[in-house]
């Protein structure tokens, strides 16, 4: 079976082959995993390695959700500064989560190396760039806290940031040496290959349409047959549909879009010359990185507007001109966007929805490391571990009543941002 269209640059450029495996007929398994992104695939890999019989059911293709569309910044910690995570989660839980996610890029790297995942991995760090003097103050506060935790981070002056980024537009930055960049679709496909190699069954093109309890089992009705399972993990995150009542109302859905230039060869060499990926401190964040082929990939919050020749393309051209006046106009060859699940407090959740039914969800745009780690934690729990040992306290879903309205408000603000930056 071949695909008719690609969902991102990464879908086209990943060296790892797509895993396409339709489900035929009914099945029985110990653990059913809904969703073939980082969360579902990491759960499957770690569960299969522990000898648990498991099956991934993915509605579309591996990496179809955020996992195959993201920027590919393998960051440490969460979107919030560590001190804010502690303040919100409490000292004990907050400190434990920060420690686990602080070490998470190194765990992702170990998985990539162990399973020889071909995903353009570079481990040169990432730069959080200050868009304003206030942004630099915020970064100094983050830097101080990370240094207190003995993390290898460097607060960059304006000149140091300009030297690494190749642009004088920033007021400094925070270079995190723990982090790196990957081709995220390559990583997702590599996890799928590794999970299958460990014994997990992975099915694509199969949507779970209903989930209900029958005696001690869970029954998953799909458009390709029925699966019975003792336990279920939903790894559907921002792509959650109506499968579990109310789950998609527990977060605000926002979008993030990206455009990729053609490979620039020597022309782009001075931009991010150290190979770091970048995102900034602006309220409407933007991102910039290179891939292994010398493309520049630039993105921001919102959807692609007008396809390859519309508003987003003009936005990307203007942004590159502003940041790198010597670059000249460059051709773009890919544009795409994806969905992000934002929670009111910007913290992820690990919900127990019912007996034997869990979902890690709400990653707020930081999912490569949390998805990998939370999937591993799910596998450990289901292999006989304790809920108390999960990276986050188990929670129960709470609807965010304003979510649909806020989604529209954000999208309007993000569109206005594209328009204004084109002027
Ligand atoms: C544009 C963008 C940029 C980002 N940049 C970064 C970044 O640089 N670094 C970072 O760490 N994070 C980033 N993120 C966040 C990160 O991509 C996500 O948090 C992460 O991919 C979530 O992984 P997941 O496996 O939980 O969910 P997803 O990858 O979204 O997977 C969910 C899957 O569930 C499937 N599904 C849904 N319902 C059903 C059903 N009923 N039956 C079967 N299957 C179903 C979907 O098809 C989908 O494939 C970004 C996100 C986006 C969108």
Structure keywords:
nine-stranded mixed β-sheet, eight-stranded mixed β-sheet, 11 helices, 423 residues, binds flavin-adenine dinucleotide, alpha/beta, 24% strand, FAD/NAD(P)-binding domain
Please give a structural write-up.
The structure is a single chain. This protein is of the alpha/beta class. It has a domain at 9-70 and 185-248 and 346-400: 3-Layer(bba) Sandwich (FAD/NAD(P)-binding domain), CATH 3.50.50. The chain is 32% helix and 24% strand. It is built from eleven helices and 19 strands. The chain has helices spanning 9-13, 38-49, 82-89, 91-102, 104-114, 133-148, 158-165, 184-197, 311-323, 368-382, 403-422, and strands spanning 27-34, 54-57, 73-74, 126-129, 153-156, 173-176, 180-181, 201-203, 208-214, 217-222, 225-234, 252-261, 277-280, 286-290, 296-301, 332-342, 349-354, 357-361, 394-395. The strands form three sheets. Strands 1, 2, 8, 9, 10, 11, 17, 18 and 19 form a nine-stranded mixed β-sheet that branches. Helix 2 packs parallel to helix 8 (184-197), helix 5 crosses helix 10 (368-382) and helix 9 (311-323) packs across helix 11 (403-422). It starts with 8 loop residues before the first helix and ends with a helix. The site of flavin-adenine dinucleotide has 41 residues, from helix 2, strand 16 and helix 10.
């Amino acid at each position: 079976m071949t695909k008719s269209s690609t969902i991102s640059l990464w879908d086209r450029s990943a060296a790892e082959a797509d895993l396409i495996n339709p489900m035929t007929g009914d099945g029985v398994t110990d653990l059913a995993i809904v969703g073939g992104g980082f969360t579902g695939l990491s759960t499957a890999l770690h569960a299969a390695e522990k000898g648990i019989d498991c099956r991934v059911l993915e509605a579309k293709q591996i990496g179809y959700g955020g996992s195959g569309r993201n920027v590919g910044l393998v960051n440490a910690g969460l979107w919030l500064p560590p001190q804010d995570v502690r303040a919100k989660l409490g000292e004990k839980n907050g400190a434990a989560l920060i420690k686990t996610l602080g070490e998470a890029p190194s765990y992702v790297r170990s998985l990539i190396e162990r399973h020889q995942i071909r995903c353009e991995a570079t481990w040169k760090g990432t730069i959080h760039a200050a868009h304003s003097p206030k942004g630099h103050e915020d970064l100094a506060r983050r830097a101080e806290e990370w240094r207190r935790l003995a993390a290898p981070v460097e607060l960059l002056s304006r000149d140091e940031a300009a030297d690494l980024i190749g642009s004088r537009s920033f007021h400094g930055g925070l270079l995190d040496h723990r982090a790196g960049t990957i081709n995220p679709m390559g990583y997702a496909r590599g996890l799928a290959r590794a999970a299958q190699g460990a014994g997990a069954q992975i099915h694509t093109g199969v949507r779970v349409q209903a989930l209900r309890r029958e005696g001690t089992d869970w029954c998953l009705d799909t458009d390709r047959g029925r699966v019975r399972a003792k336990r279920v993990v939903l790894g559907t995150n921002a792509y959650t549909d109506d499968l579990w009542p109310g789950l998609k109302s527990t977060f605000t859905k926002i979008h993030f879009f990206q455009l990729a230039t053609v490979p620039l060869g020597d022309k782009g060499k001075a931009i991010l010359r150290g190979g770091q990926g970048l995102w900034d401190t602006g309220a409407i964040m933007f991102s910039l990185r290179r891939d292994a082929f010398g493309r520049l990939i630039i993105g921001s919050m919102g959807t692609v507007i007008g396809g390859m020749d519309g508003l987003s393309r003009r936005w990307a051209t203007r942004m590159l001109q502003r940041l790198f006046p010597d670059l000249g106009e460059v051709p773009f060859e890919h544009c795409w966007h994806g969905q992000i699940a934002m929670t009111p407090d910007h913290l992820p959740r690990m919900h127990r929805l019912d007996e034997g039914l869990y979902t890690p969800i709400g990653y707020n745009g930081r999912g490569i490391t949390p998805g990998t780690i939370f999937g591993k934690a799910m596998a450990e729990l289901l292999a006989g571990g304790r809920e108390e040992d999960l990276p986050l306290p188990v929670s129960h879903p709470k609807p965010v009543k304003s979510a649909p309205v806020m989604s529209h408000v954000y999208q309007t603000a993000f569109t206005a941002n594209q328009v204004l930056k084109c002027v």
